[in-house]
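User: Here's a protein and a ligand (iron/sulfur cluster). What would the complex look like?
Assistant: Let me lay out the input and then the predicted complex.
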Amino acid sequence: MNHDNKKQLCKTEWENICEQCGRCCYEKYDYRGKVFYTDKPCQYLDTQTNLCTIYHQRLTLYPECAHLTPELVQAGILPDDCPYVKNQK
Ligand code: SF4
């Protein structure tokens, strides 16, 4: 999938790419330009279901949550086997 195709995805199509594994909802840090994940989940992640408990209000209730965009995917913070990452290759 190239960048132009991603732009044309509707919001539902874009969100449906997510496999809801929850891995990107764990704290991470950048060390010398490489992103490392910790084992500490976001306070709003239900670790049983791997779903966000405030998903539809997350951007207002928890502004630190990054809105997933094609630009953010390209920034390299998601796991390599995340479907958003695999689809951009
Ligand atoms: S790592 Fe990718 S597939 Fe998993 S929850 Fe995050 S965006 Fe969805």
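Summary: Residues 18-24, 78-79, 82-84 surround iron/sulfur cluster (CB under 6 Å).
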